[in-house]
Write a structure and sequence with these properties.
The complex is a heterodimer.
Chain A lengths: L4 E5 L2 E3 L6 E3 L1 H20 L5 E8 L6 H6 L4 E6 L6 H8 L5 E5 L11 H9 L2 E11 L4 E6 L5 E6 L3 E5 L11 H6 L1 E4 L37 H9 L14 H14 L6
Parallel strand pairs in A: 1-4, 1-6, 4-5, 5-11, 6-10, 7-10
Antiparallel strand pairs in A: 2-3, 7-8, 8-9
Helix pairs in contact in A: 3-4
Chain B lengths: L1 H27 L15 H13 L3 H26 L5 H26 L13 H15 L8 H24 L4 H12 L34 H8 L6 H5 L1 H4 L6 H10 L42 H5 L6 H5 L6 H16 L6 H11 L20 E2 L6 E6 L7 H16 L4 E3 L9 H5 L3 H16 L3 E6 L2 H10 L9 E3 H11 L13 E3 L13 H9 L23 H4 L7 H11 L4 E4 L2 H8 L7 E4 H12 L1
Parallel strand pairs in B: 1-3, 2-3, 2-4, 4-5, 6-7, 7-8
Helix pairs in contact in B: 1-3, 1-6, 2-7, 3-4, 4-5, 5-6, 6-7, 7-8, 16-25, 20-21
The chains are: A alpha/beta, B mainly alpha.
Amino acid sequence: MSIKNIVALVSAGRHPISGQARHCRNDSLAMTIGLALTSDLNAENANSVNLKVIHAGHAKNAALTDYLALGASQIDVIPALENADIVDSLAENLKNVDVILMGSRAESGQDSGLLPYLLAEKLNYSLVANVLTIKQTTEGIEALQFLPKGKRRSVKVTMPTVIVIHPLAPVQLRHAYARQANGHISQFATQTPTQESKYSCTVEWQTQSTIRKPNKLKAKENKSGHARMLSATVSENKGGAVVNDGNSVEKAQVILSYLREHRLINF
Amino acid sequence: MMNYSITALFWLATATLLLGLWKRTKLWRAGQPAEFAWLNLLAIPKRYFVDLHHVVAREPFIARTHVATAGGAVAALGLVAINYGLMLYCAALNWAILAATAIMLIGVFFVWLRRRNAPARLSRGAWSRLPYSLAAFALGLLIVNLPVTVLSAGVAVFALLLLLVGSAELALGIGLGGPMKHAIAGLLHLAFHPRQERFSGKLSTALMTLDLTNQEYGINKPSDFKWNQLLGFDACVQCGKCEAACPAFAAGQPLNPKKLIQDLVLGLSNDEKSGKTDANFAGSPYPGLPIGEHSGSMHAPIVPSLIEAETLWSCTTCRACVQECPMLIEHVDAIVGLRRNLTLTQGAAPGKAPQTLENLRQTATVGGYDRNARYHWAVDLDVKTIQPNMPVDLLLVAGEGAFDMRYQRTLRALVKLLKAAKMDFAVMGALERDTGDTARRLGDEATFQSLAKQNIDTFNSLTFKRIVTADPHVMHSLKNEYPALGGNYEVLHHTTLLAQLASSGQLKLGKSAETRKLTYHDPCYLGRYNGETDAPRDLLKAIGLQVNEMERSGLRGRCCGGGGGAPLTDIPGKQRIPDIRIQDARNIGAELVAVGCPQCTSMLEGVVRNRPDVLDIAELVASVMEHAS
């Protein structure tokens, strides 16, 4: 089965320190992977594969120009209200798409990270999460999934599919001003449903200052490099002891002597 | 008979020369239009004897050799034009020609002498035949002008043949791109130089502003250069003084300014299919890159087929090559022009550069810091923060160094000195954005212009008389590059201001208790970019410290390796540039290096111990204050 339509969904991000509007890095990775896949497919065979970059929100959002600079020649914006459910309006525009690419979560707004799952459910597409790289095979596409401790898993994906890119995907982002100056952001003509989202939080947000968390007492490790490598890569070898015998006072005494031994308390 | 053949040869050579010049002019004209004035042709003699000779005279041996060779040749050619060209055949003129050719022959002898033990920076190849072809010309002309009534037929034919060979070198040079091309292209380059301000005694170091709205995105192919830049490349004599001065070349990074200019000359060709490579280049290659694998033409992209990107990213923009070039070629403009195209159209800056540019776009700081934190180092110093409607004399712009704990010591010392001198000054606080200097050197003109415009708006909303900064990079941007975008300020380096205050007595200084042997490292952006080499030395003298000069100092100082975003692109070489500079200090036995720039401080302090200590001049001066009180 050949891929014909690829879509990358991009969201508006903001810088954690300056608060300035910017691209969401995770979405940029997804878009760049989509661009690479598109150009690979177009180089292989004559039928033109098209990558659409879609944003649900406001076309005037300053963050969108970053995606133009990062390689999108055009961004289609689906208008969305502040609290409207973008799943419905996105699903409306994502029918007959073979591959939908996106980052794992947005950087602001209702960034629950659920969007890819809701979208896949609504469209009845397959979903692969934590994807690092994708490549086309004769049967479809193959995705390399991120697993903890350096493990990776290769997955055959049935299309149509939603592919969620992991933040550690090995992609070099290239920001070029000329592309930003030549790119277009266009609003979708279709008027989208504006009903309130069933997932959206209509209650007013409350803000409060964070509470200082207690420091975790941690024993200083004097392990060899080999031992540290093992504990980082092999999940079993954690060290420590499990105390099942004795009453509660005796068990507490074990903990107390451990803390004293490692000089975490001095009384 | 003899006279007529010389006349014929003269006019044939002149016609060949003009034909060659016309051919070469067509190539230059493939470049972009540039403003120029025909009247500048009249300024060539002054520019040659003053501006150009000023550079050449740094090496007296070759200066005198060139005076004799070129002076003799020009005089002889002029006389030949009169005597034979106009068919006067006057005996007195023959004597004059004889004298001129004799002088030329002496010059050529010294050219030959030098070529026998040529330094590595000189190109061989076609340049090696020059003493012989010039000697043939001079000798041929000498013989035919000998006051002998009848030459034997054999000698006459021999002399004419010599003259023919020598004239071919002179006449064909411009058309075929031979070594003698430099004579014509060099003189025209003096007239139509892209930086005319250089000849009015002013420094011209600001990069040209790109018109981004007009889709000017730097240099992609040779024809994107302005035509007078292309002409400038043709002026190169391959003397390799740039190569000898280049810190990146010395560090074994893949850059050689001479080769770069010759590669661009190679691009001056309309043959797209001839596949002419750089195999004929007979000088030092880019370290680590073999010769003969690159080729280019007028309308083909330069990177990577003609010049590798890593070559461009090795440059520290220190301008040592420009300072040394006897033909006044502007290497840095070419490199930044090429970088601009890579960054603006492909976003292809390597290493940490993309992260830095993103930080500048998103936080207006190089390191991605909170702008509100820029003046945290001054929190206990009771310094005013400037606001609109709060007029001050002096505005202190700290720059990116303010986030670096090492450089904060320098800034604190500076603030103490300004307070001791009872200056009315304020810092910028959260209003300060990065000047965009690093972005501009990395070719990101868009980010530079956006930051510059925001800074100019900020400055316009404030009331101050002068700006002082401890960062020469900030100084260069504000003083030399902001005017093109509409911001005109009086900007002082802190050493200039402190030297003024010390000499006027406003800042009372004692004598330093420092006993270590001291040297001063000139920051490129203070020395070569702003011409300030005296104030730091005066200031050190004022506190009783004697400066021991390193091998390269003042306007010819060696770079620390920190400019032009080079620490960010971090192109690998054989050694590090700051190690070379510290070795300069070690060679004269210095135990203390005085600096005046946050980049130099961090680059030189990054050299592993044992090395001389590095202190900013402000710190040295402030320690005298503490001593006094």
